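Thread: Newbie trying to understand structure tokens

Hi all, I'm a second-year student working on a class project, and my supervisor (Dr. K.) asked me to get a predicted structure for one chain before our next meeting. I've only ever worked with sequences, so writing a 3D structure as a token string is new to me. If someone could post the tokens and maybe explain what I'm looking at, I'd be very grateful. Here's the chain:
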Amino acid sequence: MEALGIWNYWGVVLLMMIGLYTVIARDHLVKKLIGLGIFQVAVILFYVSMGKVTGGTAPIIPEGADGSEVYSNPLPHVLMLTAIVVGVATLAVGLALVIRIREAYGTVEEDELQRQNRAGS
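---
Reply by user tm_fold:
Sure, no problem. This is what the structure looks like when written as tokens:
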């Protein structure tokens, strides 16, 4: 029964494996970028899950507090906000590169790109 209590970690592992499989097994560049996005979501979910403290409150200490409260650390959540912004920007650059590759080579399939590069060398 203990394994059911950590369902979010099972979700993280499932999302990581789906993302990793998509990046490795697919030849289409857009599908690879989608796989990277899924993998990134798994990492963000993992960090947010690790930062959650049961019964924890915001780390704002009111006057006259006796110090017995449990506080959540906001640092993992703030870092993940930064990771989301960087991930979106990286995805945008990756999609822009895919567009340029499509314009230059006429395809976004990795095996076809390699075939064209070997033939052109």
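A couple of things are worth pointing out once you decode it. The chain has one domain: 6-53+72-120. Helices lie at 7-25, 29-51, 75-105, 110-120. Feel free to ask follow-ups in this thread.
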